[in-house]
What does this fold into?
Amino acid sequence: MARITLSNLAHSYLPKPRGEADFALKEMDHVWQDGGAYALLGASGCGKTTLLNIISGLLRPSRGRVLFGERDVTDAPTAERNIAQVFQFPVVYDTMTVRENLAFPLRNRGRDAAYVEARVGQIARMIGMEGALDTRARGLTADAKQKISLGRGMVREDVNAILFDEPLTVIDPHMKWELRTQLKRLHREFGHTMIYVTHDQTEALTFADKVVVMHEGRVVQTGTPEELFETPGHTFVGYFIGSPGMNLFEAEVSGDMARVMGHPVPLGATYPPTGGRVQIGVRPEFVSLADAGLPVTIRRIEDVGRHRILRGEVFGQPVNLLLPEDRPAATGSAFLQLAPEKINVYSDDWRVQPVGARRAA
Amino acid sequence: MTLELQGVSRVVGGRVHIHPTDLVLEGGTMNVLLGPTLSGKTSLMRLMAGLDTPAEGRILWDGRDVTGVRVQDRRVAMVYQQFINYPSMSVYENIASPLRLQGRSRAEIDREVRGVAEMLKLTPMLKRKPLELSGGQQQRCALARALVKGAGLVLLDEPLANLDYKLREELRLEIPRIFEASGAIFVYATTEPEEALLLGGNTATLWQGRVTQFGPTPQVYRRPVDATTARVFSDPPMNFLPVTKTGTRLSFGHLANAPAEGAFARLADGHYLAGFRANHLALNRHSGRAVAFSCRLSAIEITGSETFLHLVHGSDGWVGLVPGVHEIAPGSEVSVWLDPAHVYLFDAEGALAAPAAYALAA
Amino acid sequence: MDKSWNNRAWFLVLPVLLLVAFSAVIPLMTVVNYSVQDTFGNNEFFWAGLEWFEETITSERIHAALGRQVLFTAIILAIEVPLGIFVALNMPKKGFWASLCLILMAMPLLIPFNVVGTIWQIFGRVDIGLLGRTLTAMGIDYNYTSDWLDAWVTVIVMDVWHWTSLVALLCYAGLQSIPEAYYQAAKIDQASRWAVFRYIELPKMRGVLLIAVLLRFMDSFMIYTEPFVVTGGGPGNSTTFLSIDLVKMAIGQFDLGPAAAFSIIYFLVILLVSWVFYTVMTNLDREDRP
It folds into this structure.
């Protein structure tokens, strides 16, 4: 096991990249701590799979180095890196039995039969397939095949890291719960470094201790699920995490007061003067209907079971808010109150760090 | 416009794919087929489209029997999970293709194509080829082709399943708007309860080739007729525990009990299965009537704003969803609270014996 | 709840049945007819019963031809299948070179059989052929018209040249359908090159390989044109395979009865072997399923 360091890493699929736009992965430095559970979250084409393939050695970066512990593995082939990977679609060796599938990575490394047998039994129990060890993998369901893939990823105790590339894509919602908890448990039990690539925020947030959010080839924020939710470092993080995403309003900010089209909105902290395009962001969870405040027109109410989503407009800008299941709601004109402590200020899409607490009102 | 299924079933090689089903779908409605993989959603859609012939029963279109009518002769459009477009044609030509088949005039085609492209935000991409577009745009193109046809029945088979989470959210928002404008019967298959709720309209829950319930989506969600429907329409899965009613009391195991109020009071004494959803569990005594349960925490998942608790209560596995971030070590004992007003009672056969009190109020 | 049967569907099959009757069944019946009769010309026929069948089964001449045929088919299968797989494994996966490879590989398949024969007939000639002259110049005593071994080598090399592409192209198509993730997983599992072939590539190629072997078996077992053009079945009878022998018998000697009986047995042998082969392969496939 080892810490994984990416230093000055960048990658372009073109042989002679000209500008920054040619890079699928913009220059970055990042350290994956030993034993951490990480998620790499972003939309399709944001570079997350490129990054994963660089770590696993399936791709050689155009620039920069990859270090496992102190060892530079930038040019080392996949097999030497001692990592495991689980892919989006189940990869199983069809002609082998479940047992042979699980034993394959160990046998290839010449482990003795008794050890292999014991370890395979242990993993099979963990993925709940001890009863099916001698069935051929070919005829199994997608769920079961993906469990085998997960098991094969776990079977080696000495791996540096286990990489997951959207492993639950083909799994039914009910089964996702089971597999996700299993992964969590396996992480707790074995303490492997795990990197989990996904576009699904729920999967990322629930799996990881630290989530790395990528956007257009760049890491825009790394943080705990709570940090990403409370203080998104970039408007993209605000939009991408949470459903619906964060509300953004064009605003002018001075000190601890923001103005949206002239309407005052108190902030929870004092902000330095900023240039560029200034916006305030607040999550739908922290917006409520009130007797006074920002004028809003509610256009639509969606009942999503445990709460309602109210969709409306504030001066032509879309706004969403959440109401608890048992609270009545109606379309039409109303006023919004934004929780001051939960408002973030953005300048040209990046979060502005407040300079001090809010002055007494 | 009405599509009516009368006792329609489908049997393939001796295996029943769809049990005899009755359904009436009205024009201008969104109808969600909700169920796990292999529950029969696609089979049912194929029957509606006329791609398969039912083993039994009749399919009526505005009262006219269309059971044996070929799919080509029905006004049906279909959108699949895979993005299916003609790869060598531009987006414009893709959308125009069903109209050309109908032999419409050039001016008419142009008007319709541009109209639907505008609605689906495809106007800037009309000259491009489908494979040059993102997944979301490709699926929009397929949707546009289905809409422009002016079909009376539009079938969408998990159309968003291959898209990114966020894109799904955006299209989910657009689809009800699009369908409201068209007036056709929409049928939408999905495995996700949340998607059904967001789409609204009516929902039919499917389980092992059977439609277990059909009705307005929020009603099916809040007043499931049986435990199967409740299970299908819950994500995280619905939690269950056995209860006994004796006189005026409900006892949840030997430790917790509560007065049997409202609909519960009228039930006969005996054993029932109580079901409740994850978000109705709480870590504090949130209501005066709440009953406490002692559970072991097997895993915890934090989403940033909420916490999922994976609990073991006796021999049952439960999931709790509570607001806020809670750091609790897995393996520890926790007390969770449940308001009996959020509990559904099912009888031994799984049929609903008494709905949750809150659902009656909502 | 049984599925309702609609017998009208049979009418849809009728045109095909008629066509097959004219193109296959009636000629076949004619052959059956000849096989149980004897004729001395003048369109006079005599009942011969199973005499011709007995004669065919016991004929040493036909036994020899059958022996040569089996040997030939075995050799070309043993060469073409592994060679085809090997070529397919080493073809570029995509890009310009992949297209070029595909075109080059398809070339031999597009040449008519008698032209293939003629090409090799000339190519191998000692007086004017490039191959023949070169080999002679190198001091190798090569002459396919006089030496039986040379004739065999020539015919086999010709067949390999002509048909390995087919096996390779089919295997290539099978290989192309393997998702990249399988190779990546194998790298991560530290699988050897052999293990990748054995557990990923071969299982995925099995379906097409079955078709390739079946096609090559049937085709090579019925081979006629190319060896006939090159060697005419010689020297002696050394390259007289079953169909060459059959044609000699039917057209050369006008022994219609024995030739007809021979044809029927020939046909049944191919049918039987193909059926056995197909059943064995598909059963192997089924055993894998739980």
Notes: The longest strand of chain B covers residues 15-26. Chain B has a mean pLDDT of 89.
